[in-house]
Every structure is written in structure tokens, then in C-alpha cells.
């Protein structure tokens, strides 16, 4: 198909199609006789993917890395989500200030007061964003340090254990290599060593995997105090969420309120504690 047909089918202008071609996002073939571009159904799909990601305001460079499979889509989206979240907070601050100025005139505008208010909003937003970023960082660390999955079998021997690990790796697109098989196998994911063990629970066997040297996953920019606090949140917030869910579904609103009243002071105390010097 020609470029006019591509424009009709994708809703992307010819100018933008040529721009994406210039940037290396699409690479249409050329006709042997006249050297005209010949687009395929795959080109249509690629342009539709580009259209989705551009509507999300993802940078061209990241889209190029996604299409070349240098950067997995989920990682690109997660990275872009952090950018959008930051922009959202900036916009909310701007909206708040604009609302306070909606009835002001240039002559009556107290510039110093407005600047002071904006600085306070920015500072407050910066602290909140920093807390969220630190929590996300620790959440990623904890997810890498250890993980648990339910195998298809009861893992009764080393062969079944090996098969369970390899199946899990294949399903999750992991580069997993077993270096020491057995009932307590040792393996590597992207050259990072883990150990595994089988645990029996109420509904069957689960496999728990732990990084041999978890400290290598830790971001040196985070203090020990912050990491300890956010690790606590990561491990126990899900427990709080489950308790709250079951309480709400059974109409026990009072129990949820009691949990919230108990939890919020702990969070406030913990966040305040993180600003104090750490002592072993």
C-alpha cells in the first residue's frame, strides 16, 4: 500500500509518517521499478503502536528502544508513568495557584505573597514525591531480593525442582541458569545468584527464592533507616489492605477506621524518624 492508504488507515498524517521513517521507527520497503515506498500490514501495526505511545507523550527515543526490543514495553511504560506522575503534581500545584489568582487584578497582585505560596507548594510536593520515589525504589529492591511462586507439581525431587524453576523463568521471560541442582538449588538470573527452597502450605507446595547477596540490589542513595521503614511498609501494607477489604465487605467500617487511626500515626512517626541521623 502507498502512503496515502497508510494515512487513511492509521489516521497519521503523511508528514508524520515520513518523520517516523526518518527517525528509524518504521522502515518500509522500496518498489524495485519506481523506488516508491511500499507499506505492509506490519507497518500499519507499528504505526498504530507509535500512535498509542505518542498519545501518552512518550519520547521518540524511548519508542525507538521499545520497537527495537532494546527496552521492554512494561519497563518503558513504568518509566514514563513516573514522569507523568511528576508532571501531574506540578500541574496540580499550578491549578491551585491559578484558582487563587482567578479574581485578582494586575494592580492588586501581591507578587511576593504568590511567590511564597508557590515555593511552599513546590516544597511540599517535592517532599511527597521524594517519599513516593523512595518507596518505589525499595519496593523494586524487595521484589528482586526474593520472590515466591506456586509450581505446577509438588516438587518432590531435584528433577521436578529444576523443571519448576525453568518453567517459571520461561513464563516470566527470565534469563535463569541453574548452577547447582537439588532440593535446595542454586541458580542465577542475569548473573545474580539465588537459592531456592520448597515450602508446603495449606494449599500445596510453593517455591521461595532468595538472592544470595541481597545487598547488591540496594541503592546506596537510600539510608539504612529509610530502607528499613519502606521495607516494613512493603511487607505489611498488603496485610493491612486485606484486613481492610474483608472488614469492608462484611460491613465492619469501624474496624477499618480503627486500623487507619492506628496506622496513620505510625506512618507519620516513621517518615519523621527518617529525617533524624541514623545510629547503629
Characterization of the model:
This protein is α+β, with helices and mostly antiparallel strands and 280 residues long. It folds into 4 domains: 65 residues, Multidrug-efflux Transporter Regulator, Chain: A, Domain 2; 71 residues; 68 residues, no CATH class; 50 residues. 59% of the residues lie in helices and 12% in strands. Strands 3-7-6-5-4 form a 5-stranded antiparallel sheet. Strands 1-2 form a two-stranded antiparallel ribbon. Strand 6 and strand 7 form a beta hairpin. Helix 6 crosses helix 8.
List keywords for this structure.
alpha+beta; two-stranded antiparallel ribbon; 280 residues; 4 domains; Multidrug-efflux Transporter Regulator, Chain: A, Domain 2; single chain; flat; 59% helix; disordered C terminus
What would a concise description of this structure say?
This protein has 280 residues and is α+β, with helices and mostly antiparallel strands. The chain is 59% helix and 12% strand.
The helix/strand series, from N terminus to C terminus, equals HHEEHHHHEHEEEEHH
**How many helices does DSSP assign?**
9
Tally of domains = 4
Helix content: 55-70%
Measure the end-to-end span.
Answer: 69 Å
Q: How is the main sheet built?
A: 5 strands, antiparallel
Please indicate the percent range of residues in DSSP E strands (runs of 2 or more): 5-15%
Query: Based on helices, strands and strand pairing, what is the structural class?
Result: alpha+beta
According to DSSP, the number of beta strands is 7
Mean model confidence by pLDDT: 78
Apparent shape? flat
Read across the widest sheet, the strand sequence of neighbours is: 3-7-6-5-4
Q: Spans of 5+ residues with little confidence (pLDDT < 50)?
A: 267-280
Overall radius of gyration: 26 Å
